[in-house]
Amino acid sequence: MSVTPYSAQDGTKKDQVKTMFNRIAPRYDLLNHLLSFGIDRKWRKRVVKMVKGMKAPVILDVATGTGDLAIALSKSHPSAVYGVDISVGMLEKARQKVQKLGLQHTIILKEADSEALPFDRNTFDVVTVAFGVRNFGDLNAGLTEMGRVLKPGGKLIVLEFSRPANFPMKQLYNFYFKRILPLWGGLISKDKEAYTYLPASVMEFPEGEIFETELVNAGLHPEKSIRQTFGIATIYVALKPLQ
User: Shortest CA distance to 79 belongs to which of 58, 62, 60, 61?
Assistant: First the structure.
């Protein structure tokens, strides 16, 4: 995935993504819910349903951003939810929300790189990542790291944007992502390049069966992939082999 946020600037994709999210953090939540029409909340609830029923799981939420999924996962009665992100700006917004909700004893936030997670092997029952894998500098390294920290038999759940294939949603989606989202996102965030990069990263992301192959290459076993809302997003579920 070669697309980067700031084409005229030097630095790795990881460095540029970190800079981008620090810049847009103050208005990220507003834009995220506004530009997704709030549908992202429904998708997160479906991720949480996949965790409910597990007995006091220890959960890691990678690329946690402002903590929306980590906070939603706290309702699944976990032992703990760890949220990690490379952007200190996004983590500060997450900490404010966690404190306001009184969840600081359940949700532990850390600055960390998805490709070098500061946890021991076989630590977590569940690892989640929502709208983050397409921003990884090295997709295989990030997936492999998430697999490393999963317990054998543990579950990786990835929620990521995908591309509708059928008329008229395909055409509407492409128009919205290429015309509307960059315009309004740039105006509100004051960072036009960020909201040009975000849809471009979706268009480049290896979705569907190609992403399932990436999971296999990282040593994980794809269990199911569930398309959401006419194919706008997909929830991928993979397991770490027992041996």
Answer: 58
Angle, helices 39-51/13-35, rounded to nearest 10 degrees: 110
- Rounded Cα distance between 12 and 173, Å, is 29
- Per residue in 173-183, pLDDT (tens digit) is 888 888 888 88
DSSP for 88-108, written as a single string: HHHHHHHHHHHHHHT-TTTEE
Residue 191 token pair: 């960072």
Give dist(CA 241, CA 225) in Å, integer.
18
DSSP tag of 118: S
3-state secondary structure of 230: coil
Measuring CA to CA, which residue among 131, 135, 79 is closest to residue 108? 79
Domains and CATH numbers, the chain: 13-239 (3.40.50.150)
Q: What is the pTM of this model?
A: 0.95
